[in-house]
Structures are given as C-alpha cells and as structure tokens.
Description:
The structure is a single chain. The protein has helices spanning 5-28, 36-53, 65-85, 88-92, 103-114, 116-134, 139-207, 210-229, 277-281, 302-323, 355-361, 366-377, 400-416, and strands at residues 274-276, 289-292, 299-301, 329-335, 339-346, 381-386, 392-399. By secondary structure, it is α+β, with helices and mostly antiparallel strands. The chain folds into two domains: 5-168; 264-417, Histidine kinase-like ATPase, C-terminal domain (Heat Shock Protein 90, 2-Layer Sandwich). The protein is elongated and about 105 Å long.
Amino acid sequence: MSVELPLWRALTGYRILTLVYTLCLVGLSYRYYAHPLVAVAYMAALTLWMALTWRRTTSPERCTRQFLVADLGFAVGGILLTLAVDTHARIMGGGPTLPSIWAAGAVLGFAIKGGWRWAAVASTLVAAANLIERQELARDTIHNVVLVWVASVGIGYVVEVARSSERTLARALQIEAATRERERLARDIHDSVLQVLAMVQRRGAAIGGEAAELGRMAGEQEVALRTLVAGGLLPPHGGLPGAAPTVPHQAGDDLREDLPAPVAAAPAASGTGPCDVRALLAPFARAGVTFSEPGAPVELPAGAAAELAAAVSAALDNVRVHAGDGAHAWILVEDEPDAVLVTVRDDGPGIPEGRLADAEREGRLGVALSIRGRLRDLGGSAQWVSVPGQGTEVELTVPKKGASGASEGGRRGKAGT
Length: 417
C-alpha cells in the first residue's frame, strides 16, 4: 500500500467532519448574522460541493489540480463572504468565518498532492483572505494563520520525503529481486555450462591439433561467461571479457570449477509438499562417502530440499577436487527443532586460509553461488572449518520456517523466467 493512501483517507475524513462542525457552528450563529440567508445559501452550496466531490480526496488520481483550485476557491470565497454576512462587531471580536476550520482541508489537499511548495502557496492565499476579513493584524488571527501555514508546509515536506523513500524502497526491491534471479541463473550456468567449457578446454589441450584450437575457443567463452555471471568482475589475472586466460586452468585450481562432471547430480524433488531430505542425500553414499541419517524423516519443502541437496553435491565435488579420489567424505544429517543441519566432512589436506575469498574475488563462483548462494536464498547459512592436514568440514543450515517462503519465492522466480 502506498504511503500516501492513509493521508488521503485522513483528509477525506477531516473534510467530512469539519463540514459537520461548520454546519453546526453556522446554525448556532444564525440569529447573529447580519444577512443569515446568505450564510445559509453558502453552506448549502458548500454541502452540495462536498456531496459531489468527497470521493475526489480518496486517492491521488481523483484529486486533480482543477479540483484543488475549485476547493480552495470555496474556502477563500467563504472567508471573504463573511465580511458581507456577519456583523462588524462579531468580525472584530474574532468570530469564526463561514467555512471556519473546513478551509484548512483545502490547504492540506494541496500539501498532499504537490508537496510543501503547493502547500505554501495555498496557505498564503488562505492567510491573506483571513487578514482581509479581520481587517487588522489581530493576535488570534495571526496565530491561526501561522498554524495553518506551518502545518500544511510541514505535511507537504513529509509527503515529499515519504514519496522519495517509497521510490527508493521500490528500486531496492527491484534490484534485490533481479540480483536473486541473476544468482539463481548463475548457479545453473556454473553447474553445467562452465564446467563443460572447462572440460572441453582441458581435453582439447591434451589432444592437440584442431582440438587444441577448439579448446582455446572454449576457454575464451568460459572466461567471458564467467565474467558475466560474476556481475562484471574482472576475470582471473586481470584479463578482459572474451580474452583467453594468461594462465591455463589446472585441476584443483579452484573450488569445483574445472570438474568434468559433478560427483552425482542432485536428485530432483517433485511436488510442492514436504520432502524427506534423507531420500535426496542417500544416493550420494558410495565407496569413499559415508552417509549418516537419523531414524525419522527429516522434512523440508520440496524446493528447499532440492537446493540443499544441490549444495551437498557441490561440497562433495570440492572434496574430490581438493582431497583427491583417495579421500573419504562423511555426510551427517541432523534434524534440529527449528532447522535442518547437514555436515559434509573430509580427511583431505584442507583449504588454505583465504582461498575462498580469493576465489570469489577472481570470479570463481563455485562456493559463492553453488553452496553459499543457495543456502542464503533459503534463509540459511554455510560455514567452513578447515585445518591444514586435517581436512575440511562444511556445515549447511536450513531453517524450517524460512525455507518455506524462500522455496516458494524461488519457484515463482523460475516460473517467470
């Protein structure tokens, strides 16, 4: 809901309530007017105007400039008409004008519609009419004039700030949605296209001849595509998009970047209801990978469970790249009261300190997107603990409550691409 809508509703209520108050005020002062029939005629016209136009102040689209000018005309005209309707003694004694406090509603309409500048102009016109009606610079008149002027200008300024904040928030939400969708697409590209291009480059260089040229071209496209999905980061070694890297990729040079294929494709989760995480992670168990699970089902929404399984697959790929085929890995699933915790541990050499941050800065997004990005979209987290010579442990946490909304948002994003 727009931040302006409550203001327009409040203005509509103000105009209706002040009209009722003004009718009562004129009714009580009827016998004191010099020309009471003129006062009655004005109030009848004002009531008819309100009956025909009260919906104009319920939204900014209905409240046009022409309406605001006409509404202000009723207010200023009623104030000046008081000179001809009321007695001189009542006017000099500070008696209320015909529109009374209803006139402030016309000024507030300008403030909400056009900001503080419009409010300043409208309140100045009402102030001038009040001073002309009073015929002197009386203290109570000046007090009321300044009050209306300051209130309308202040409300107009607040409206401008609110509009600016609303536009900034809308832009931030658009950027966040676009960033999340870009990261999702980047993960899919990283898990498939980039790995295939890296494999073609490496195999082509090994075979030689025409295959080497094909491998070189694949390497160029890999660098360009990697730069694109990294959000404009410079490719490794400061090269330009589309240029071949100055240092060829070596097996194990990055976390899960140059694998010919994932260790095992994450099984797909069908449907939108709860899914047992154990069923998705059990296929990863094989020689060299030990899978431990609780005795009861560990349920997450289907989309969240699939993303968690894909993150585990990426972690196992990293084990094979860095620890080698002889390393052993353990997958442990824990069902906490408010989250699902999956730990992937290996007995490899560990990850050198700062290697993850360096890989992300260089545009290598295996950990940043395939693991950490997936968990972040689910409202969870991924933590690495690595000791040189003692292996690496990756702890993946997915909250049970946050995963439901995140997985639904992910499905909506995929449906819209």
